[in-house]
From TrEMBL:
The keyword Chloroplast does not apply. GO terms for molecular function: kinase activity. Gene3D superfamilies: Leucine-rich Repeat Variant. Transmembrane segments: none annotated. The keyword 4Fe-4S does not apply. It comes from the Eukaryota. Keywords: Kinase, Transferase. This is ULK4 kinase.
C-alpha cells in the first residue's frame, strides 16, 4: 500500500496528458513536392562522394531560393521536414553538420522571411547538433549560437518562438562543450559568446518568476 500511494502524487503534475508540456508534432514530408531524391538515411550514408556532393548542391540551391509565393514557402518547408527525418542518423548528421549545408541553414535562420521556415530550420540545426558525434574544426557553430541568441532576445516576449529556438541553442551549447572535452585546443569558431549565457540566465529567471506567480 505504501508503494501504491506516495506523497508526491499530490504535488507533482503527471506528464501524461499534461497540456503544459509541449509534444513535438511528428514530421512528415510529401514526396511529390520534394524536388530531390528522397534517400533514406542509410542510403545517404553510403553515397559516393560525387553523388553526395551533388545531393548537397541540390539541397543548398533549393534552400537559397527566395520564397516568392506560398507554394515556394511550402516547398522549402517540405524539404526541411525531409532533413528532419534524416538528421536523426548519427553518421548523416555528422556529415551534414560539417558540410556546406550548415552555413546555408544559418543564413536561412537569419534571413528567411517566413517564421515557420525559421522555426523548422532551427529544428533541423537542433537535431544535427543532437546527433552529431564528431564536429568538424571549421563548422561555424559560434555564428549559429549568435544568431539564435539575437533572435531570442529580439522576440523575448514571444513564448512560442522561444520554445522553438531555446532547445536548439541548448543542443549547440552542449555539443560545443562535449567536443571541447575531446580537443586539446578549442577552435575559434566554437567560441560561445557571452550574450548566449546572458540570454539563457534571463530565460531561467523569467521562468522561475512565472512559475512562482
Amino acid at each position: 500500500k505504501e508503494l501504491i500511494y506516495t506523497e508526491s502524487d499530490l504535488i507533482i503534475t503527471p506528464i501524461i496528458d499534461n497540456p503544459k508540456i509541449m509534444k513535438p508534432m511528428p514530421v512528415r514530408f510529401d514526396l511529390k513536392t520534394l524536388h530531390i531524391p528522397a534517400h533514406s538515411a542509410e542510403k545517404l550514408s553510403s553515397l559516393k562522394d560525387m553523388d553526395w556532393n551533388d545531393f548537397l548542391r541540390q539541397i543548398c540551391t533549393l534552400l537559397d531560393s527566395v520564397e516568392k509565393n506560398t507554394g515556394a514557402a511550402r516547398s522549402k518547408l517540405n524539404l526541411l521536414h525531409y532533413l528532419c527525418t534524416v538528421a536523426v542518423h548519427k553518421e548523416v548528421a555528422s556529415k551534414l553538420m560539417s558540410s556546406q549545408l550548415f552555413p546555408v541553414l544559418i543564413q536561412q535562420l537569419r534571413a528567411a522571411a517566413n517564421w515557420d521556415i525559421r522555426a523548422k530550420v532551427a529544428r533541423v540545426i537542433g537535431l544535427l547538433a543532437l546527433y552529431t558525434s564528431e564536429l568538424g574544426e571549421n563548422v561555424p557553430v559560434s555564428e549559429a549560437i549568435t544568431i539564435l541568441t539575437e533572435l531570442i532576445r529580439e522576440n523575448f516576449r514571444n513564448s512560442k518562438l522561444k520554445q522553438c529556438l531555446l532547445p536548439t541553442l541548448g543542443e549547440l551549447l552542449y555539443l560545443v562543450a562535449s567536443q571541447k572535452e575531446k580537443k586539446e585546443h578549442p577552435r575559434e569558431c566554437w567560441v560561445v559568446p557571452l550574450a548566449a549565457y546572458t540570454v539563457l540566465m534571463r530565460c531561467l529567471r523569467e521562468g522561475v518568476r512565472l512559475f512562482h506567480c
